[in-house]
Amino acid sequence: MKKSIFLTIATCAVFLSSCEFLDRTTEGSTLMQDQYEKLDNQIEGSVRGLYSRLYTMGGSDHDTFGKRSIDLWTDILASDIALTGKTYGWLYTDEQMLTINRTGTIWSHYYSQLHNINATIYAFHNGSSFINDLAQYGWPSEQAAKPKEEQHEYSEKDYENAVNYAQVLGLRGYIYSQLVKLYTPVMGSDKFLADSLGNFDCVPLYTETNKDDPQPLSTSAVVYNQVFSDLEMSIKLFEEFGTDFVRDSKLVLDREVVCGILALAYLNECVYRVGTPEYNVHVQNALINAEKVINSNKYQLLSEKNLLTTGFNSVSDPGWIWGQEVTVETSGGLKSWFGQVDIHSYSYAWAGDTKVIDADLRDELNGQTWDKRKLWFNDGSANSIYKDCPDGKFFSAQNPTSTDEDDIDRDWLSDNVFMRIEAMYLVAAEANWRLNNLTDAAKYITDITDQRLDTTAFLWEDRYNAFKNGLTTTDAVKKALIYNWRVEMWGEGYGLDTFRRFGESRKRGANHIVAKGITINPTDTYYNFNVPSSESTYNPNLRDKEE
């Protein structure tokens, strides 16, 4: 059984030396004030404390558990995941394609993190000399070209602080990348017909310089520019100061994680730049950063041999770039991905409220007879209640097969995946497609699908060769991209992004319990996340504007 202690710190109080610190706790194990003061590196302790909010969200609801809960909500919203039962009521509003009940939760979740992150960045600027030295002397790689008397030698502590600072900037860039993509309407929607990124008021932008004062809404373009600035600076810091940095957990950001976040941010943003000079530049930036991760050779595509053996339940998987190791202290129990989705755990899915692959997407997958990924989803032959459940993709590390009550996993110690190398291959494929490099796009797609072959299927080789040989036109590559984003990344939080980027309507399968069989379009109003009423009530900038 896994057991470890992870720091959880209310960082906004850390640097104020306030007794309030003792009352500002998050879920999980807590570092107390006297323990904090004994740390050799208080800033490092504060940075580590920021990570707990990636997998906690506060409150008592069993469908609110940080990043993986938002992944679940948005995949249901895009109809890739269908909810087949509502006995317990969790996730029903998502199945109804309603954002109104989530927008306040998402807003408060991200902005509470930003408050702590900005406090930590503020502390760096006021408690660490390396930032001023960097502005005065330049990067380590620039020193050799200077006259000897002008060279600056950074200390070991500077290198440590730089890597910690890179992590915090990476976290801020990540959170703003999530906010701006959700709260910017889909291109072509009624709300965005006459607007552009440069004049649509999106979300307030808080940094270390204005963190304590209510801010007006910034435009989507301004927020995206902050995303790009933070993430690019983070990558540069890792490349200059972090060449020897080895993270002790896959939850911690490093260069490759931040490159992955930046690649996805550029990809989600570029669709708003179609027809402008920036479009190709931003698509190219998505490609460059995805290829940085791929070419690092640190991560391996999931092989056909292991396609059905991993359960997507362990951070030790060589293809996981970013993820959370779940321990006794950090397990959410029923309030977790496996507590909601896995039929081999004591979960809502096991009890009947199953979360399954959309029936039409399943039929498309089954139509590709060469594609072994169809075995990721239960065929219902043993128990029709669990038909279409993802028990070949996600299953308990402790109990991979049984659904008997006596065998069921009641510890919920399966790990959470945040980012896999396959996502970077798909970013690279899509970026090449958008740049009209169809050969390169097809290559990245087939790098994945070459490892997804069901060699027991009838005429699998002929049919797979027909699929590969058909990837020569824009439409064929586009169709393969959408298919692989939806199938390969099913349940990992990419569904709504894919739906919005490609802008194509789709039909909801017959296994949804709400609005089955209807055609949905990403420009529909229920895919807009609006500023929550609480923000309009308490932020005078928004309240005055409404009045």
* Helicity range: 40-55%
Write down the CATH topology.
Answer: Serine Threonine Protein Phosphatase 5, Tetratricopeptide repeat
Q: Residue ranges: pLDDT <50 for 5 or more in a row?
A: 3-40
Major sheet details: 2 strands, antiparallel
- CATH architecture annotation: Alpha Horseshoe
Mean pLDDT score: 90
Give the count of helical stretches.
20
The tally of strands reads 8
Strand content is under 5%
Rg over alpha carbons? 23 Å
Shape: globular
Order of helices and strands: HHHHEHHHHEEHHHEHEHEHHHHHEEHH
What is the distance, rounded to the nearest whole angstrom, between the alpha carbons of the first and last residues? 57 Å
Oligomer: single chain
What is the CATH level 1 assignment? Answer: Mainly Alpha
Derived from helix and strand composition plus strand pairing, the structural class reads mainly alpha
